[in-house]
Amino acid sequence: MKIPLSWLREFTDVQLTAEQLADALTLRGLEVRGVERWGASWNKMVVGELLEVGPHPKADRLQLTKVRIGDGPILNIVCGARNIAAGQRIPVALVGAEMPDGRRIERAEKMGIASEGMLCSGQELDATDDGDGILILDPSAPLGTPLVDYLGEDVIDVDVKPNRGDLLSILGLAREVGAITGAPVVYAARALKEGADAVGAGLALRVADETLAPHVALRVVDGVKVAASPDRVQMRLKAAGLRSISNVVDATNYIMLEIGKPTHAFDRAKVGDTLQIRLAKKGESLETLDHEVRTLDATDLVVADERAALALAGVMGGASSEVTPSTTSVIIESAIFAPTSVRRSAQRHSLRSEASHRFERGQERRLAALGADQVAALLTEWAGGVARAGRLMSGTADLPAATLNFRPSRVRALLGVALTDDEQIALLGSIGISADAAADSTKIVVTPKRSISAAKGSARAVRVPSWRSDLEIEADLAEEVARLYGYERIPTSIPSADLPSHRPSPTLLRDRVRRLLADAGLHEVVTHALVSATQAELWSEPATLVTGPLAVSEGAAGGAVIVLQNPLSADHDRLRQSLLPSLLDRVDANLRYGATSGAIFEVGRGYGSTKGAPSEWTRLSIAVWGECEQGVPSAGATAWNLDELKRLLAQVAHLVGERPAYGESIESPVLHPGINAAITGERIAGLLGELHPASPIWRDAPRILLAEVAIAGLQSGRLEVAKVVLPPTTPPVTRDLALLIPATSTVGQVVAVARSTVSRATAVELFDLFAGAPLAPGERSAGLRFTFQPSATGADDEAIATELAAFEGTVLRTCGARIRGVEGQ
Amino acid sequence: MDLAALEKQLRSLQGDAATRIAAVASTPDLEELGSSLLGKRGAITEILRGIGALPAEDRPKIGVVANEVRAAIDAAITARHASLSTGELLARIERERVDATTPGPAPRTGSLHPIPETIAAIAEIMASFGFVVAEGQEIEDDVTNFQLLNIPEDHPSRDLWDTLYLQEPGRLLRTHTSPGQIRTMQAGGPPIRVILPGRCFRYEAVDASHGFEFHQVEGLLVDGGATLADLKGILDELAKGLFGSAARTRFRPGYYPFTEPSVAVDVSWPGSKDGWMTILGAGMVHPVVLENGGIDPETHQGFAFGLGVERIAMLRHGIPDLRAFLENDLRFLAGFR
Fold first, then answer.
1. Which domain holds residue A817?
2. Residues A314, A337: contact at Cβ < 8 Å?
3. Last-in-domain residue among A455, A489, A523
4. Distance of CA B97 to CAs A219, B94, B101, B104, Å?
5. Which of A241, A528, A703, B84 has a 20 to 30 A CA-CA distance from A118?
């Protein structure tokens, strides 16, 4: 809401500067978006006086003028306008001035005669819509004064919150300003002189639904001459951010800004005998003022005559009854409409207007008659109209005055400030919330659903002004007291009582994983959860990957992809299931930025929907490409490979006391079918592999490797406390086994068998792997090192031998792998 | 063999050994020579085998000579060993010499993203006031995201949140972390001190200060008597924790449907360019919200606050454009150590 200060001053005295006022309003909860000087762009433009106006010797349509702009030299200016005469005061753009449209004023020859500036029209100044004639100023305009000092205007832009519809008017803001300054606020309504003809002659009002239109006032003004509004009106509307249309439309807008009451003017000649307010018929059509033909719904409230809908009530007028230059008589409709009805119609038709904005926020009933009267008064003043006697009315403006009770002790307890009962009452009184000593004050509205009885004498009653329908419960008054007292005066303290019991942070493990990976040289990223259809189809986690307790604690992936109903763009119209497409997108971006090597990770969520029930899961995703080690000329750079990636995963898994096991490869359009493996485990599960060569961002170099895993505790944060046994003094012993693995089995299978059958081993590591001649194709020779910790020297030799023998039998049976030799100490 | 012959042999060995010791070129050779002279089967022992043939009274005499010779040879070896090992050490040092002035491998400099790190910083500050972290769901329903927070359907305050809806009726992506207030209250009664960080979504065009995906941290405290003064105290501490102990806060009335009174908090710190900058919204929890959370507003009260993580991170790190956070340019990320 833009407030020209001169307008505000019509209702209350303001001694503060615009900036001081803006600060004061902001501290009282009326957030000021900005303070501007309307007209500040009028550089090198001053008030001048026409000394002489004469014909141009060579051009009939031009005139020669001599202009005085104060004590300086008299200027010769050539002018094309016809509405000028000697003695007038006019705006003069001096040489060097820049017009609002960007044009620069130069000393110029016009048909052989030098012109030392320009006389400006309202349109050229972007002040009024009049482009035909020069803007004629008041004879009292001080000569030589910069134009901005004379016509300019301080404008404060206030961000009015949705609960304070009463502040969508100059008068409403004046009340708040008055509370700050202590100056009285007076609205002197314009007196309306009525003509002899009665309003009811030939016109009736019929309201079909008094719930949706509880109160309506109509006035008729005859003898209207539709024209441009007076210059000062046009400029004031412009400063307030509205376009000037015509004197009739401007009058409705002027009153809307002044007292917050939207009204609508119909061309009387285009309306039948009965103005009706009714619900639209389903499928009924209406061409609104923006020349869109709209198909109405049976819940749209319309203003109509006996033949057709004329306006969408509270939202926008219709083209068929629009005021035009030939209009001579207008109907002013000033109504109270149900906020929800207006809001729904405005939303349904995507048609938000200044009027609907105000109706949605509620309207004081008394404004209906006042609005109609004030618009009529302006029409008599600006358009020469004659108001018919009386109004056509429906419903009543007389609602019982609202009282609200509150316990000053409760306000003190809520705010933590020692304000006496009387101090609170006085603060409320400063914005017209007056004490009502006579009313019964025992009923306290805690919430709209819950009222209680206050102890006798503990509560006070106040009368809520009709414009403050937002004040409904006790806490609303507490806020008013705090606001008017000033938040800056409320003390600060630290709450001391009632600490909740301790809960471990859900980010405990996550933060350790993040720190570990960052220390290992990876960059954490945060990517979009909303992705494109292509990205979503690229990959989704197989539901069989993460199961059991891990699926319970970290969320089970799967279900249908969740699609938005109203996406901003097709690039982000659905929720990802895997983080990998988002990560790949960032790998691609960084490759374009020249990062030939990189390593990134994200801990984030995937989303899916099963039978309509949405679910979210937490995963760690990693993407690495290029070189993992730099600055080592002796060893050469080491490219990221599966083992480097597995080292990271093993370190991460170590945090939850597990070693990742690698199982069968996964069918996936994003992973290289020959270079990937599932990660299977109780506390870490997922997959890793190289990017599929068919991927659009694949390239020969650098190769891109990916992993995505669920880790127990990544979402919930619980870290198991490790149980530790003291080591014996005996050193550990190792046994190295050489195995021949046939092409039909994987190393992962053999290692899995080793880990499960040799349960005494504290570690099983692959220390050698060889393929090629003299081995058969696909056959591999692997060396496995088992580490044991006997309790005393030689104590477990027999048991170890038994377990290794069992392993030999099992690995031959399940994997076809033969033991070629055993070594150990 | 007589005493004189044996003594001569020993003396001759001593002289011969001196020559050989001086000629030895390495410590292993010296050790070998030493054991061939002095060892159990060495030259001295060999000579002394003849001692059995001597008369008993001569035997101690030859023992004295043998000890002299043994000591002399041992001393010569020790001296020679000292000189040889010094030379060998110097040779080893020269042999192993490298240029140790190379820059060394590049550090593996990863980084933690400023958004989770800013959340962690907030959590760390709030933890000292007893606030624990909890996380809610990002897919919400209209009831919890709006209605239970005192934002009824068809209320103009809905305009404050442009919402991304799912195709499933009634479901949406949470527009703020505030529904976590309801879920926290419903999950367990007071006392409550919790912060709820997480991702939020809005139907919003992307520019330097807006995005359709962003992060918030919600805070909620409910107990028997927390006041607006307590809200000021805690949030002043939070601001100082985030922007330095010299930061100043300004509290002014705001508007949120789920708080009453509502508060907007501005911060300013020495060197901040733009004067007061709004960093968060807060307020005393609205009695309707307490009621919807299953808490009696007559016996309990508290405050809530919500802040935009991106905005805080931008202010703290001097980042002019919020889009950098989701762009994830490694050159940008590398700045966060």
1. 733-824
2. yes
3. A489
4. 106, 5, 12, 17
5. A241
**Distance between CA A539 and CA A537 in Å, rounded?**
5
Mean pLDDT on A605-622: 94
Average pLDDT over every residue of B294-303 = 96
Q: SS3 for A520?
A: coil
**To the nearest 5 percent, what fractions of chain A are helix, strand and coil?**
25, 30, 45
CB-based contacts of A344: which residues, under 8 Å, 6+ apart?
Answer: A299, B154
**A181, β-bridge pairs:** none
What is the average per-residue pLDDT within A425-434?
94
Amino acid at B248: R
* Structure confidence by residue, pLDDT tens digits, A349-383: 999 999 999 999 999 999 999 999 999 999 999 99
Choose among A751, A764, A654, A662: nearest CA to A712: A654
| Beta-carbon separation of A590 and B233 below 8 A | no
Q: What is the pLDDT of residue A637?
A: 66
Instruction: Say yes or no: A495 contacts chain B, CB-CB below 8 A.
Output: yes
Q: In residues, how long is chain A?
A: 825
Q: Single out the residue of B302, B287, B311, B289 nearest to residue B178, CA to CA.
A: B289
The rounded mean pLDDT for chain A is 92
Question: Collapsing DSSP states into helix, strand and coil, what is residue A340?
Answer: helix
Tell me, yes or no, if B311 comes closer than 8 A to chain A by beta carbon. Answer: no
Both A456 and A590 in one domain: the answer is no
Average pLDDT of the segment spanning A88-108: 91
Answer yes or no: is A787 within a domain.
yes
Q: What is the DSSP letter of B147?
A: G
Q: Do A297 and A279 share a structural domain?
A: yes
Identify whether the C-beta of residue A688 lies closer than 8 Å to the C-beta of residue A649: yes
Choose among B155, B229, B257: nearest Cβ to A492: B229
Interface confidence, given as ipTM, is: 0.89
Q: Report DSSP state, residue A458.
A: S
Q: Taking each helix axis from N to C terminus, what angle separates A421-429 and A474-485, rounded to the nearest 10 degrees?
A: 80
Same domain? For A413 and A384 the reply is no
Tell me whether residue A496 is in a domain: no
Report how far apart the first and last C-alpha atoms of chain A are (Å, whole number): 87
CA distance A566 to B173: 11
The position carrying tokens 């059995």 is B52
Look at chain A and report how many structural domains it folds into.
6
Q: Are A236 and A38 in contact (CB under 8 A)?
A: no
* Same-domain pairing of A295 and A208: yes
Instruction: Scan residues 612-671 of A and list those with Cβ closer than 8 Å to B.
Output: 612, 614, 616, 628-633
Question: Average pLDDT of B72-78?
Answer: 90
Closest residue of chain B to A162, computed from CA coordinates:
B157
Q: Which residues of A478-505 are buried (b: 16+ CB within 10 A; e: fewer)?
A: bbbbbbbbebeebebbebeebebeeeeb
Residue A189 maps to a domain: no
Q: Distance between CA B308 and CA B214 in Å, rounded?
A: 8
**Helices B59-96 and B27-38: crossing angle, nearest 10°?**
170
Interface of B with A in 211-240 (CB under 8 A): 212-213, 221, 223-230, 232-234, 236-237
Closest residue in chain A to residue B159, using alpha carbons only: A162
> Is A275 in the same domain as A240?
yes
Residues A645 and A695 in one domain: yes
A130 is written with which tokens?
């009049």
- The secondary structure of residue A745, as a DSSP letter, is S
Q: Which member of B133, B164, B227 has the closest CB to residue A415?
A: B227
The structure tokens 């359709």 sit at B212
Cβ count within 10 A of residue B85: 13
Nearest CA in chain A to B257: A163
Q: Give the distance from residue B88's alpha carbon to the nearest chain A alpha carbon, in angstroms.
A: 28
Assess contact for B282 and B217: CB atoms under 8 A. no
The per-residue DSSP string of A173-190 comes to: HHHHHHHHH---B---PP
Q: Considering only residues 23 to 82 of chain B, which have any Cβ-Cβ distance to chain A shorter than 8 Å?
A: none
